[in-house]
């Protein structure tokens, strides 16, 4: 396993740590962060999420720089993104910080695209994430981070940035899903 793939796998291994910190009945007290009051464990969980999300950029950078782009990496990278984002969104619903219907739309798109990827893989085709997919992923990461940090800094100016970011993430999630299916509709054409 090459370095970029190891970095991707590290993202997957950070998910259980994130879940334990966010969901275990721990009380580390409250804190203020850039004008937002939040439990300390939410701040720590947000940092773990942000570190895990940052590995998405790092693994891609090294895969391209060292010419280590592999089919395993093309498979693992979007899978790691989907696992991390889905886990974080479900935690946000559990905490009452994200509406479940938006999370259902986002996760449903992820399942649909994963299913399409499996169909294409069955035909011997591994498709790397496109530009819209990358924008979608970063929009989701920004929204989740803002929600985990209780809209810090924007709370000071009374701007619901986290909510707006979640709507933007949902928009790019739907658009990139539609685009993915549009460009891969050949998977549904019966060639027999």
From TrEMBL:
Gene behind this protein: pgsA
PANTHER family: CDP-DIACYLGLYCEROL--GLYCEROL-3-PHOSPHATE 3-PHOSPHATIDYLTRANSFERASE 1, CHLOROPLASTIC, CDP-DIACYLGLYCEROL--GLYCEROL-3-PHOSPHATE 3-PHOSPHATIDYLTRANSFERASE-RELATED
UniProt subcellular location: Cell membrane
InterPro entries assigned to the protein according to its UniProt record, in alphabetical order: CDP-alcohol_PTase-I, CDP-OH_P_trans, CDP-OH_PTrfase_TM_dom, CDP_ALCOHOL_P_TRANSF_CS, Phosphatidylglycerol_P_synth
Reaction equations catalysed: a CDP-1,2-diacyl-sn-glycerol + sn-glycerol 3-phosphate = a 1,2-diacyl-sn-glycero-3-phospho-(1'-sn-glycero-3'-phosphate) + CMP + H(+)
Enzyme class label: transferase
Family statement drawn from the similarity comment of this UniProt entry: Belongs to the CDP-alcohol phosphatidyltransferase class-I family.
Name of the protein in its database record: CDP-diacylglycerol--glycerol-3-phosphate 3-phosphatidyltransferase
Biological source species: Rossellomorea vietnamensis
